[in-house]
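Marked as duplicate of an earlier ticket. Keeping the data here for the record.
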Amino acid sequence: MTPAINLAKKRKIQFTVHQYQHDSDAKSYGLEAADKLGLAEEQVFKTLVVEFDGTALAVAILPVNTSLSMKLMAKALGAKKVHMADKADVERATGYVLGGVSPLGQKKRLKTIIDDSATKFPTIYVSAGRRGLEIELAAKDISKLLDGKFAEISQQ
């Protein structure tokens, strides 16, 4: 069990865990998950952590086949600028290693923005907190668990 799975269980959220054999040479953890689980790339979401307002951190959840728009993320957060957070800050705040960062069960509750494309699907897939492990659940449940907000934050 991971903190992400434990949180979903504790809050009685309906979910399914999917496991695959992670390849340490994979260039993109998210695209690898979509490929190995036979899923549409736009239904598998990655978790990125950004820094804004000097030292504050926030979580962006977006499809693995897109890039984070820093401008749209800043707008969604009501910040002037955002940039990718330092690896050490990400691991310290979330309790997860890069490539296995789940939006669920993080050490610190961070402001969370979910790309609004997630609402097109009955369920989406996010990291369950370990490379090779995904958790499938409704985007509305992720939003509820994290007090997350939906906004357009991705770009092709």
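See parent ticket for discussion. The longest strand covers residues 45-52.
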